[in-house]
C-alpha cells in the first residue's frame, strides 16, 4: 500500500438547526479501498459532498488535503480536476448517447479547428473498456444497457479522466449477483494499479470482501477507523447503531391461520407476448411470511406486479384473495380487495418525491376519509399522525418533503401508505434495498407486528440470509417456474442457490 493521498481533519458542517458533521477526520491511501459505513443520516453523504466540492470551501469548518495540498474546492469541476470522481446511486449518464460518447462527455478529444475527433473517441473508449475487461460495444446506446452495465460505464468514464480517487456510493444496490462480482474484481484491479477508493455500502459481506480499512460514522461523528481484518460484522453494526445487536433477523415463530391468498397454475405472458411465468401455485396463510427468491430475471417482481393487476396477461390459472377471484381487477380494485404492494423502486412507483409525508401517506386511502366526494382533512391528519408515529419516521413532521428523507425513512413512508389501506396481504419487493442496518431491523420488527396481527406477507429479496432469516417458507423461482420450496428449517444458502439455478436434485 502506498502513501496518503487524501487527509481530512476536524470537518464540521452545519445546516439550519442541525450539525450534520461534527469534528470528523478521515484519510485515504493510494492503492487502498476504504469503506465508509453508517446508518442513513449518519453523515456519510455530507462528508462525500465536502470532499467532492458540492459543499464549497468556506461553507464548513476544518480542512482537507489532496496529494499533500490543501483543497479549496468551489465546485464539482474543481474536485474533478484534482482527480476525485464520485459515482452515485443515481447514475449520471445520457441514455440516448452511446457508451463512448458518455465516457468522454465534457472532455471530448478535438481535432484541429476544435472539431470533435469521433474516431478517436470510439477507439479510446474501446481501449478503456478492454483494459478493464468490460464487454460492451462502444457504439451501443446507454438506454439499451442494464443497470449493472451502466454502473461499469460510469466507472470507465471516471477512469478516462485520470481520476486518482474514486468514491462509490452504494454501487451494488441495484446489481445482480454476477454483476457485483464483476464490479468487485474491477475495484481490486484498480487498487492494484494504485487507485484509491472510498466504498460506501450497507452490505457488510461486500465491505469485508473488498476493504482494507473501515471507518464508521454515527450521528455525524467518526466513531472508529480500523483495518478490516481487525473488525467483525457484529462490531461494525454495533458501532453503527450504538448498541449491541443480538439477532440480525428477529423473526418470531409464526402460527399460520387460514389461507388468505391462493394461486393455482398461474401462467403469464409479458407485453410482447412472451411467456414469463409458468404454472405457479402456492398458498399464503394469515400470520405467515412467504419468501420469494431467485436470480435477476427469474420472475419475482413480475409475479408480484401481476398479482397486483399491474403487469402481464394471464393465459392460465387462478388467483384468489380471501376466496374472491382477482381475475381482471385493476390495481385500485386489488388494493381495495386487501392486497397491497410495496414496489422495489420506491422513488419511481411508491412516492411523489416533491410532496410532503402526509400527502404521500394517505394517497392510497383517501376514500376512507371522503364523504360525498369531499376529503375530511381532520380525520386524514389524525390517521397520518398515527402512522407517522407508529413507523418512527425520522423527520420534523408530516410537512417534511419526502424527497429530502433518507432511503430508510422513505421506505417507511411507502410502507405506511400501503398499511393505511388496511390490507390482508402485504407484498414487499426488495424492501431493505439501499437502507441501513438500523432501518432494516425496524422493518423486520414491523413484519413481525403485521404477522402478529394476522396479516400475511409475501417477501421478495435478493439477500439469501434475509430470506432465510425472515421467512417461514421460501419459494425459489427459476426462469418463471418454482425451482424449489423450503421451510425455514430446511433452507440453506447453498440449497436456495441450487434451486434458483435449476439444479435441485442434480448431483
UniProtKB/TrEMBL annotation:
Entries under InterPro entries matching the protein: AAA+_ATPase, ABC_carbohydrate_import_ATPase, ABC_transporter-like_ATP-bd, ABC_transporter-like_CS, P-loop_NTPase
Cellular component per GO, a single term: plasma membrane
Location of this chain's protein in the cell: Cell membrane
Predominant location category: membrane
Membrane topology summary: Peripheral membrane protein
The UniProt record lists the keyword Transmembrane helix: no
A molecular function GO annotation: ATP hydrolysis activity
Highest taxon of source: Bacteria
CDD domains in UniProt: ABC_Carb_Monos_I, ABC_Carb_Monos_II
Family annotation (SMART domains): AAA (SM00382)
Keywords: ATP-binding, Cell membrane, Membrane, Nucleotide-binding, Repeat, Sugar transport, Translocase, Transport
Keyword Nucleotide-binding: yes
Domain ABC transporter positions: 6-244, 261-504
Protein name: D-xylose transport system ATP-binding protein
Taxonomic source organism: Prosthecobacter fusiformis
Amino acid at each position: 500500500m502506498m502513501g496518503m493521498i487524501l487527509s481530512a481533519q476536524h470537518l464540521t458542517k452545519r445546516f439550519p438547526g442541525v450539525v450534520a458533521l461534527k469534528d470528523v477526520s478521515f484519510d485515504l491511501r493510494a492503492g487502498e479501498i476504504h469503506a465508509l459505513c453508517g446508518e442513513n443520516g449518519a453523515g456519510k453523504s455530507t462528508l462525500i459532498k465536502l470532499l467532492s466540492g458540492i459543499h464549497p470551501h468556506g461553507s464548513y469548518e476544518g480542512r482537507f488535503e489532496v496529494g499533500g495540498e490543501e483543497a479549496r474546492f468551489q465546485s464539482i469541476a474543481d474536485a474533478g480536476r484534482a482527480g476525485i470522481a464520485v459515482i452515485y446511486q443515481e447514475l449520471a449518464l445520457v441514455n440516448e448517447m452511446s457508451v463512448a460518447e458518455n465516457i468522454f462527455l465534457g472532455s471530448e478529444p478535438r481535432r484541429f479547428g476544435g472539431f470533435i475527433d469521433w474516431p478517436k473517441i470510439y477507439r479510446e473508449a474501446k481501449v478503456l473498456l478492454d483494459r478493464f475487461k468490460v464487454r460492451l460495444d462502444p457504439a451501443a446506446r446507454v438506454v439499451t444497457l442494464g443497470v449493472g452495465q451502466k454502473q461499469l460505464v460510469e466507472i470507465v468514464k471516471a477512469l478516462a479522466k485520470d481520476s486518482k480517487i474514486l468514491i462509490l456510493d452504494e454501487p451494488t444496490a441495484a446489481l445482480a449477483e454476477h454483476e457485483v462480482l464483476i464490479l468487485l474484481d474491477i475495484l481490486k484491479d484498480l487498487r492494484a494499479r494504485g487507485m484509491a477508493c472510498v466504498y460506501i455500502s450497507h452490505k457488510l459481506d461486500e465491505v469485508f470482501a473488498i476493504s482494507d480499512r473501515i471507518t464508521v460514522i454515527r450521528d455525524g461523528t467518526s466513531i472508529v477507523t480500523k483495518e478490516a481484518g481487525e473488525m467483525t460484522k457484529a462490531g461494525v453494526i454495533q458501532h453503527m447503531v450504538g448498541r449491541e445487536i443480538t439477532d440480525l433477523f428477529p423473526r418470531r415463530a409464526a402460527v399460520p391461520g387460514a389461507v388468505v391468498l391462493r394461486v393455482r397454475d398461474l401462467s403469464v405472458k409479458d407485453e410482447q407476448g412472451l411467456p414469463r411465468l409458468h404454472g405457479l401455485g402456492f398458498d399464503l396463510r394469515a400470520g405467515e411470511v412467504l419468501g420469494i427468491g431467485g436470480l435477476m430475471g427469474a420472475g419475482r417482481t413480475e409475479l408480484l406486479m401481476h398479482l397486483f393487476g399491474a403487469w402481464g396477461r394471464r393465459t392460465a390459472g387462478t388467483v384468489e384473495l380471501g376466496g374472491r377471484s382477482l381475475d381482471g381487477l385493476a390495481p385500485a380494485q386489488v388494493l381495495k380487495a386487501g392486497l397491497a404492494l410495496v414496489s422495489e423502486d420506491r422513488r419511481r412507483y411508491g412516492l411523489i418525491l416533491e410532496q410532503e409525508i402526509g400527502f404521500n401517506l394517505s394517497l392510497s386511502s383517501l376514500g376512507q376519509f371522503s364523504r360525498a366526494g369531499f376529503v375530511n382533512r381532520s380525520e386524514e391528519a389524525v390517521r397520518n399522525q398515527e402512522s407517522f408515529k407508529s413507523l418512527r419516521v425520522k423527520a420534523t413532521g408530516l410537512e417534511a418533503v419526502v424527497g429530502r428523507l433518507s432511503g430508510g425513512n422513505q421506505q417507511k413512508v411507502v410502507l405506511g401508505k400501503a398499511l393505511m389501506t388496511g390490507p390482508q396481504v402485504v407484498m414487499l419487493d426488495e424492501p431493505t434495498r439501499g437502507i441501513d442496518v438500523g432501518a432494516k431491523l425496524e422493518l423486520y420488527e414491523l413484519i413481525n407486528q403485521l404477522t402478529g396481527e394476522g396479516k400475511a406477507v409475501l417477501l421478495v429479496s435478493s439477500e439469501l440470509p434475509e430470506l432465510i432469516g425472515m421467512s417461514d417458507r421460501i419459494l425459489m423461482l427459476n426462469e418463471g417456474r418454482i425451482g424449489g420450496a423450503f421451510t425455514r428449517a430446511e433452507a440453506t444458502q447453498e440449497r436456495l442457490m441450487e434451486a434458483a439455478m435449476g439444479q435441485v436434485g442434480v448431483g
